[in-house]
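User: My advisor, Dr. K., asked me to get a structural model of this assembly before our group meeting. I'm new to this, so sorry if the format is off. These are the inputs:
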Amino acid sequence: MTKTKPATAPVFVTVASAVPLTPAELATLADLLSRQLGSITLKPIVKPQLVAGLTLTVTDRTLDLSIKHRLELLQHQLAPHAQS
Amino acid sequence: MEIEWTQILIQMVNFGLIVVVLTKLVYKPIVKILSQRTDRIASSQLDADKTRQQNQTTSQAAQAELLKAKQTAEQIIREAQKEARADAAKILAEAKIQAKKQTETERQQSQAEMKAEKKSVLGKLATLVTQTTAQVLQNALSSKEQHQIIASQLKIIKGVRFD
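Assistant: The format is fine. Below is the predicted structure of the whole assembly, which you can bring to the meeting.
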């Protein structure tokens, strides 16, 4: 007797990058995410203000790997309580 | 020359009468007047002595009062000077404490201002550094380098759990 996996709605993933991702990069990313999340819908967007790197938003969670985010962290380390 | 005894007798009686009359009418009143004058002078002398003595007593009393007043005044001045010195010392001590407090307050205020200024400058500097770095990187990173970064981040994503 075999159990059939119930069909679930695809997880919506937004990937932001400073430059447009190549089809190979998109395929790699989709592969990595679908292994964990199952069916996904990947929406790539280009944000030059990220400087470099990627930002992933999976439903309500965000993984920010962009250089802009790294620079913001650096700014907070340089002046912890300063108002920018 | 014959001596007329009768005439001599008459003259003697006459002289005696004149002496009696003069004694009665002139000498005694004059003596009386002189005696009264002497008494008056003596009385005046006595009064003058009494007045002089009173004056001397009054003068001595006045001098004593003056001396006493002078001593009292000197005592008051000494006490006033002592109180003034004590007040001056108290005011000076309070002023020193106040000045110390003021200095401490100003020092703390100055330190707080310096700290705030330092924080502000650091914040501005950090913003400037990061913004400049972002600008430089945006212009400096080639497409190849951008994709190298993405490739390295894909490796990171591989190790992240999303579920």
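One thing worth pointing out at the meeting: DSSP finds two helices and no strands in chain B.

User: Perfect, thanks a lot.
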